[in-house]
Amino acid sequence: MSTLDSAILTLVTFIPLAGGLLLLLFPRRDRDIRVFALVVSLLTFVLSLHLPAHFQRAQAGFQYETDQLWISSPNIHYHMGVDGIAMWLVVLTTFLMPLCVLISWKSIHERVKEFFILLLILETALIGVFVSLDLFLFYFFWEATLIPMALLIGMYGHERRVYAAVKFFLYTMIASVFMLAAIIWLYAHTGSFDFVVIRDKIASGAVPNFATAANWLFLGFFVAFAVKVPLFPVHTWLPDAHMEAPTAGSVLLAGVLLKMGTYGMLRFNLGLFPEQSRANASWIMVLALIGIIYGALVAMVQPNMKKLIAYSSISHLGFVVLGIFSFTQAGLDGATFVMLAHGVSTGALFMLAGILYERRHTYAIADFGGLATPMPRYATFFLFLVLASVGLPLLNGFVGEFLVLSGAFRTRAVYGVLGATGVIWSACYLLWMYQRVFFGKVTHEVNQSLPDLDLRERTALLPTAVAALVMGVAPMLWLDAIDPAVQSTLAPFAHLMSKVVGR
Amino acid sequence: MLHLILFLFFGAICVAGAVNLLVQSHPINSALSLVAVMGSLAVEYLLLGAEFVAAVQVIVYAGAIMVLFVFVIMLLNAGEEERTGGSRVALLLGVPGMLIGSGLVAWVLLEHSGTGEVAAGALPGPPKIIGWLLFHDFLLPFEVTSILVLIAIMGAVVLASHPETPQQTNSQQTRKEG
Amino acid sequence: MTPNLHLWLIPLLPLVGAAINGIFGRRFSRQTTAAVALGFCGAAFAIVLGVAARFSSLTLPHSEFFASWIRAGDFQADFAFYLDQLSLIMLLVVTGVGFLIHIYSVGYMWEEGGFSRFFSYLNLFMFFMLTLVLANNYLLMFIGWEGVGLASYLLIGFWFTKDSAASAGKKAFIVNRIGDFGFLIALFLMIQHFRSLNFETVFQSASSLPSETAGAGLLTAIGLLLMVGAAGKSAQIPLYVWLPDAMEGPTPVSALIHAATMVTAGVYMVARSHVIFDRAPMALTVVAITGTLTALFAATIGIAQTDIKKVLAYSTISQLGYMFMACGVAAYSAGIFHLMTHAFFKGLLFLAAGSVIHAVGGEQDMRRMGGLKEHVPWTFWTMTAATFAIAGFPPFAGFFSKDEILWRASQVNLVYWGIGVFTAFLTSFYMFRLWFLTFFGENRGEQPAGHGGHGHGNIHESPKVMLVPLVLLAFLSVTGGWIGSQRFEKFLAPVFHAHYAEQAGSEASEITGHAGSELIFTVISVGAAGLGLYLAWLLYRRRPQLPQQIADVLGGFYRAVANKYYVDELYAILFVKPLVDGSARLLWHGIDQGVIDATLDNGAEGARDVSDTVRRMQSGNLRSYAGWVAMGAAAVIAYMIWMGTR
Amino acid sequence: MNPAADAVQTIPQGVEYIRILPEIVLSIFGMIIMLLDPLMDERRSQRTLGSVALVGSLAAIAATLYQSQHPGLGFWNMVNVDSFSTFFHFLVTSVTAVVILTSYEYMEVQQIRAGEYYGLILLGAVGMCLMSSAVELVLIFIALEISSISTYILAGFRRRAAISSEASVKYFLLGSFATAFFLYGVALMFGATGSTSITAIGQVLRSGPAPLLAYVAIALMLVGLGFKIAAAPFHIWTPDVYEGAPAPIVGFMSTAPKAAVFAVLLRILFEAHAPGTFWLIWVGAALSMTIGNIAALVQHNIKRLLAYSSIAHAGYLLVAFATLPNNGIPAAMFYTAAYAAMNVGAFAVISHFAGAGERYVTLEDYAGLGRQSPLLAAMLTIFLLSLIGIPVTGGFFAKFYVFSAALQANLVGLTIIGVLNSAVGAYYYLRIIVVMYMREAREEVPLSSVPLGLGVALTASLVATIYLGVLPGRVLDYASQSVAALAR
Amino acid sequence: MVPVSYYLVLSGILFACGVTGFLIKRNIITIFMSIELMLNGVNLSFVAFAAHWHALSGQVFVFFVMVVAAAEAAVGLAIIIAVYRTRETLNVDRVNLLKL
User: Is D411 strand, coil or helix?
Assistant: First the structure.
């Protein structure tokens, strides 16, 4: 293993933070700040490409590991590493970040420095969540995402930003406290924060009192993740947060932050508590299904473009949870893929909504209509990404959803069937919205002269469109790294499956 | 027997003084009741043999501290107590709490104090031995009390003195603003 | 070693064309755009012809693997193509008719805005349709399946500034999605039970299962779900509602997608999955009944339509019903045969109708036409050929295929046949009604006063570029059936009978055995068609005032028919409105805001109230504070004494 | 400790003075200030005296470090210098230094000219230092009085403000009231065991069933100490006093004396082995956390809000007292240190921001601070985050150690209450952050630039907060050494 | 011979009277006097226990308490004066600017 391999995760994680700190020293010349933020985020992205480039795809375990003792009491390690799942989420984060910088180029014109500092800090925290293998480290990054995000919403948001920011913060904070309690319990009874150590100890039955506490521990983790996902009925923070967040905030919120929840379920709920996961799967899947259908139906009737996309996220993330708790290879592969795909396409949709907001300062669907005429390029991008989101084959949305549903179907047919109705709903709400915004005659005179996408905006959008296409056509580029990771996650379920189902 | 009579007599004065302190509405009367309490307490100390303590009680407590009280009462020209009903909590919670607490403590003291009887002047405390104790075993607390006294002096000086000139400018400012 | 045919070129060429026109089309001249579109589409056609030429030298079915697409656990789906007789026919139809329609479109769309966009979409459609046809597994087929839906959405909504067009596109997509939902579930069932979506694997596994004559089982379920998908795509009851609305698209689109190719994908899929259907009689019956009912139902609506394209749309639905009827009676080759001839004549009908519309400057209402025969002779004559073909007059193409279907249906159940014949009568009637109304009599249209888009002022024949495809298709509509159903069936036999169907031999003998009775049935059906022609002549040529009287007599029934049995309205009341209102009122305002957020807000409010109460402790009064302390002290003392005395 | 040597010894040995060296240093500097004050020009005295005080506190820190090399008993078993008391000495003297730095600007802005201010801080610190090292109840009482009386006076230092003297008198009267309870407890403990030495009491209480009188004594002492640490239901004075007292002093008295009282509490509970207190502590902890956090939800005055927060934190801290000494003692010690770091820092910002006459102390005044002074706002944010208990701040590990100690002692219920409370608590800290960053200032709050002294103070608190959050190991290890001394 | 507990109870009564005074008196000075009363009660306990244990240290403590009381008195009365200056009242019920 080369030195770069062992240091790469640290580099990728902390370069944005370093950039943010450097920004502190910058004079308040907005242009320089923007350019610098872009450079830092691009650098991070390029570096992060090292991960998939040198990833041993056939290998299941964690790679690029670094493990150093950080604090001896409690026994906290600086333990980082990625498997195929986490790796792609890291790349997703670094991929979206330069786009976020680009999309915020003009829309943020006050307190620019703080904005980009927050953005870069947020990137570090987000990446940290995905690469941490030490529960403490994980919890730290987990909480650390909260603050810059809440500040982004609260400082740069729209009218009800404070309400949204506080709601977001409290919802997730209160929920993650349960996870903290569970983590502390685990530490108190295993003497370690290390994910691998704890997992092995639990698996070998070396944890005292585990049997009585296991279900509570599972729930402690689960609640924190479920709020983040967000799962019905703890989802109501999301529409508000999205509604008020600045575009870059929404992109990251939908694109990456929500995935922290599903990633957490995948890694920790399934990884540490396979038996409890299995025991609780049925109601969790029901919640996921409710999320899929409910989110879609509510999205359908939203009068506001951004809220609509927000509710659609609830629906899409329902797929992810459904896939995760199907405990099938296809389901988990698909869930991971949906995470990535949703990050790209919904992130892009939020960027598009933001572009429109920059021009018209409204998200209300009723304020638009017939936009395809003045803004054909914009309409094209929008359509493309709507279709990606709808799950059109050969675009990124389809692969994941298909795998998830087939996995869910295999677990219990009715789940698959109900989940598959999501295919219909998503077409309903997105196309209806698209029609109302873009088709017909231009109904508001102001919209007649809206400028089409400029070069910067196209530069920001094009990568997402390309990614959406490539992911749809060649999902194997992603899946062949994800598959072994999923396989090892599911390993403890193999014998459980035979025990419970007798199959 | 005499011991008991004296104890009860001066104890009664003590309690009467204490109750009178509570009942009197003018602070000067309360202060005088407190002096009575302290005086009779000095006698109780004597009964227990603590002669030096008794003397100091009269000199320091009744003599110095109470004079200070009376001085302040006079200085501030404190008059009759107003009968304001500011606090129901004190009556509804505090007094029952006090009764329960003191009842329990009294019970413990009577029944479970683990103490026997004591003769008059059981433990004489002559100044010599007390002095030796003060400057030997209790040297550190003794020295430290000097710090305490120092603080008290400083504090009294600071707080009792008139606030400095900026007060006027400040209050003028507020008046202007008002 | 089978030769590498580079089948991937067939779908990919149109895709390249689409991409070029989509990305750079804005900067192209119309000529360049047209050249690109036609070039790539034509190239695909040429390759298909090349494949057809080498066809006899191939070992069939011929598979070509290109790349693996999805692999997750034990599930795998590839980019791999599958060529057999069935797909060859489909390829020929799609590329051939498609190419002709491309040519036609150049003329038709020449003066429209978004020329390059149109051809980009059209090529995109070709890509997906060819993928659908060539796929070697259900998932790849599903790509095409959804993709043609997308292209259809785009093309129906091509004139997106028209609200009705935009809505129609959306409706088409969503209704198709409902069908796709069924298709998806079918796929899941296959994955679960066959562990694969490869045609060969699935069919192999399915053929090893016993026929589910006794009761419904896995195969029945798969079959029914596939039928849901097919019903969506091929506009069968109850999912047909999108197709009439789809006529909002440009007419070549209606011809290509909504008549010749895409809508027949359902038929293709059912035929392709015949192994499953063969073993699921109940599913087959459902297919047959659906097809039969749709054929009749759509035909009755067709009678009362006044929009020339709507008539054709309902006629398409009706004809698709025939095809499903054929599949439902396990006469797959008959269905495919009809699919092919239908592609010719219905494509032609639409193109001709387009030519008519073009001629009268965008007018689509037949009541405003009439007497066009002299103005547009080429169109008239080609349309005549197509009309006779669809009505089922020998020796036009439609006769052979429809006759075959009816005869095969009669073998299974005479009810199918009866309805089929009645439908044939209705078909003949409304088609000739159209014919008479459009081309004969006086011109009832207002004198076109310089209608902007076309700007010719007078009724005029279409340019040559449009007429050439008309003529070619007319030729095919006439001669397409001459190949004969028997020969056609024999060509397809390896697909439908070769290694899977066990009763292949017995059926073949049946066909030859009952030549005599077949003739009787043929006469009856041709007679029905003739009756239709007569009635149309009577009503719309001889006594033009009669239809109105009949309509008045029929009253409510006529209104119901004219309004398409109010099905759209019914769906709106039954599904759309409750869903939208329910989502808004119950879910969003009700649960989201009313329950969850309200609970949270009340919780927060409650916490504030509690907080307010707690801070009342802090009355500011010193004695109260002392009271608290005293009480607390008492409690502490009491507790400690209790501890001490325990 | 050699009893024989003890018997013959009539005057304290040299090393014993080292064992009270920080106290001596602080007293000397306090007296120097007292002497210098009248000699100096009023206008310039502030700076000089402040500097002297700073030097004094730094010298005391140095003395503490030096003292740590000479552990042992001194002055006839009156004081005991061990890692435990060194820890608290260091804490108290550091807090003193930071508070003095904070006060420079504050005193100027408030136009308070009194050299006694610094003298009182230093002399008060003597009491606090002594409290942690004293192992004799009467000395503890005197030390407690020293620290209390100096803070009574300091609380009333804004004498032009009515609320300041009100705070002072409330604090004084209730404080004396509570001290009387403590003293009564000492008396009864003396009666129950015949000794006031904690070691001796511990021996008696360990040797057999404790007399009932001892229980009452402990109860009364707990009342007194509970009052000082603002544990419910004896917390009631805190909000009023914190609101009225000068901001730097609030920072001071919410940390240093509190830490010292916690040290006393640790000694009494663990070293003297007070029996039967478990549920008392349990209920006290739960009540404090809950009342503090809930009442803070609707506060508008930021000082008052932090007062309630300090009640809540006392509750978290008390959780450690209900656990096993092995984990509980280090956890509690760590908590006091972390709390001191973050709270002193927060109050430093508040002091700076309050302006003349402490006009700007409501939440609304903080609106727009994030824009007006990003650095100051960022610092306050970090302190607040630490108070919430976000990782990589001292506040996180403080809570972490306490709760993991609780879980190791199987106090699941208390842990859940605590964890829920810290979630609720997040809300009101967050409100401050929200206001700073997300609300626009309604009126322009005058804000001077941060002077050097305050800057150093803030940086020091910040560094301490972060250090405790990133590398808590050393401090915890050091605290763990005390376990052996306290819990035999 | 008198039981030591009598003395103790007397001290307890004085302490309780002090507490009661704190609770019911309105005048700040009187309240402060109540505190002195409490301290006096404690002192009696110290002396009584000293007699019980035959330990003179108990008497020594009384001195310390007295010093503390004196210091407290000095400071307390100064504070009271300060309050009187700003509020012009000695009634605790009126000293309630700080609340809630």
Answer: coil
